[in-house]
Amino acid sequence: MTLKITMPGKQNVFREDGYGAADCQLLISPSEIARPRQRLKALTDIACHIPTLSVLRLEYNNIGNLSEEFLQSCKHTTDVDISDTGLTQLSDFSFRSIEQLSTLKLGHNRLSSVPKATRNLTTLKILDLSFNIINKLGCSDFSNLTGLTQLFLFHNQIPNLPGCVFQDLKELRILKLGSNKILTLNDAFMNGLHKLETLNLASNKLSSIRKGEFKSLTSLSNLFLFDNQIASMENGTFEGLVNLTELKLASNKITQIGIRNTVLTGLPLLKSLDISCNYITYVNDDKLNPPPFSHLTSLENLRIFSQRHKGLSHLPINFLEGLKSLLSFQAGSLNIKELHPDTFIPTPQLWFLDISKNEFTALTLKLFHPIPRLNSLYLSKARLQSLDFLIGANLSRVTFLQVSKNDITVVNETVLRSLPALTYVDMQDNAFTCGCSDAWFVNWMENDNQTQVVGAGEFTCNYPADLKDTKLLDVELQFCTVHFGLYCYISTTTLILLTLIASFAYHFLKWQVVYGYYLFLAFLYDTKQRNKHTPHGCQYDAFISYNAHDEPWVLRELLPELEGEQGWKLCLHHRDFQPGKPIIDNIMEGIYGSRKTICVISRRYLESEWCSREIQVASFRLFDEQKDVLILVFLEEIPTHQLSPYHRMRKLVKRRTYLSWPRAGEETGVFWQQLRLALETKDGSSEENPILSGVQAL
Questions:
Q1: DSSP string covering 502-547, please?
Q2: pLDDT tens profile 50-83
Q3: Residue 163, in any domain of the structure
Q4: Position 326 in a domain
C-alpha cells in the first residue's frame, strides 16, 4: 500500500521523475494544524502502523529537519519519499528503525552534503539526492551501501570526484552526476564500479579526458558526456569500455583532431555516437588518413549535425569508412555545399539519412546508388531547386521524404514514379510555379491513395505574378490535360501517313532509296578509312567487280593477263573476301583497299543487285575523293536506253571514257595496253589523266 500525507497549502503535482498520485492520500484540515510538525509526526505514526503500508510519501511538506524519532514507527516501510520538504539537516540515525528500506528520495531539498543518515543502509537500492546544493563528496559518503543499484546526484554543485568516493558501490548500475560543476574525474572511474551500466556526466565543466579514464567500467553501456567543455581527448580515452553501446559527446569543443581513430578505439559494441554541436570542420573533401571511425564496425547511429563556427563545410570522401553497420546518419546544419558521389559507399545498410539545412542547391543521383535500403530521407531547407536527382537514384524503398523550405518550382511525374514505396512526403514552403507544368502533380496529390502529402492544401503559387499566393489546389488546370483519345488519334494518323509515304517511296523511288542507303554506308566507311591514316598505301592494285556469269572471262582472260603477264595484284570475290564477314563490309574493304576498281559490265552485271552496290560504292569514292579510281570495261554492246534504269551508270558512261572488249577475232593487244596504262595512272583527278582519250566513247 502507498500512502501520501500532504499538509494544506501544498499542491499534488506530477514531477519529471515520474512519481505522481498515491494509492491513498491524507489531507489535514486547517483546524488540525495548530502545531503542523507535531501533527505530521502523529499522522505518520498512525500511517506506519498500517500492516500493509510499504510506500510512504511525505513530499511537499515543510519538514526542514528530520529527527531520529520522526520515522521511528515506520519499521516495515520499504520506500520513503521526502522530496521537496525543505530539508536542510537529517539526524544521523533518521532511518535506523526502517529495517528493509530499499528506496530513499531526498531530492529537491537544501542539503549541502550527503547525509550521514544514508550510510550503512545495506538494503538500500535507490538513493535520490538530486536538486540539492551538495558541494562536496567524501570517501565515506556512501559507506557500506553495498546493495545500492541507482544513485542520483544531478543538479548539485559538486566540483570534483575523489578517487575513493564510489569504492563501496559494488552493485551500482546507474549513476547520474549531470548538471554539476565537475572539473576533473580524479580516477573516480579507474577502479571499482564493475557493474555500472549507465553513467551520466552531462552539463559539467570537464575540459579533457585522459587515457583509460573509464577503464574499470567494463559493464558500462551508456556514457553521457554532452554539454561539457571537452576539447582534448587522449589516445585510448575509452579503453576498457568493451560493452559500451551509446556514447554522447555533443555540445563540447571537440575538433576534427579530437575524433581521430586512435581516440575511438576499444569500442567493439558501440552502436550510437553523438558528436553534434562541436567544432569539427574540414577544408576539402579529400580522403582522411586514417578515417576517424574505421574501428567502429558495429556503429548504427551517427549524429554530427550543427557543427559550430563555420560548420563542417566539407565531408571527406572516406569520412564514413568502416561504418558497414550504419543505419542512421544525421548530418544537418553543416554548411556543406556538395557531397562526393562515393560518400556512402562504406554504408550499404543505411536506413535513415538527414542532410537537411545545408547549401546543396543540387545533388547527383550517383550519391544514392550505394544505399538502396534507404527508408527515410530528410532534405529540408537545403536550397534545392529540383528533385530530378531522385530519378534513377535507386531509392525504391524510401517511404518518407521531407523536402520542405527549398526552392522547388516544379515536381514532375518521373520524380515521384521513381519512389514507388513513398507513403509520406513533406513539400511545404516551396516556390511552386502554377501552370501546366504542375498539372500532373496537382492531379496526383488529389487522387493518389498511397502517399500522404503534408499540408497540400496550403501549397501556394510563387509564379506567375498574377497567381502569387494563390493556393496551388485552387488553380484551374483542366485545360492542361489532353484526353487519351486525342493521343490515339494523332499517333494513328501519323502512322498511316508514314505508311503511305513509305509505300510511295518504295514504288516510285526504290532505286534512289537503296542507292542512298548504300551511299551513306560508303560515306561512313570512307570516313573510317581516312581516320586510319594508313602509311603503307593500298593492299591491292585493283578490285574486280563482275557478275558470276562473267566469271569465266575474268578467270581465263583478265586474271592471267593482269596478274600473270603484267604483275598486278587483284582483289577477287571468291578468293579474297573474308569468310563470315557481312558481304557489304567485304565489298567496301575491297574497294577502299585497292587503288582502282575495274567494273566488268554486261547485261547480267546491270541486273545484279550486288554488282549495283559495288559500282555505287566505287562511284561514291570517285566523286568524294576526286581521284581517277574507276575503270569501266564493257564486255558487250549495251544501248543507251538499256542503261536508263541505272542512271548512275549512265551518268558515268556519259562523263567518262571507257574500254570495250574486242569482238571475236579482233586483236586484243591494244585493249590490254590501254588497261595497263589505266592501272598505271596516279591518283590524280580525271582531268589530269587522259589515258583513255582516243578510246571509243559512248
A1: HHHHHHHSHHHHHHHHHHHHHHHHHHHHHHH--TT--SEEEEEE--
A2: 888 899 999 888 888 988 888 988 888 999 999 9
A3: no
A4: no
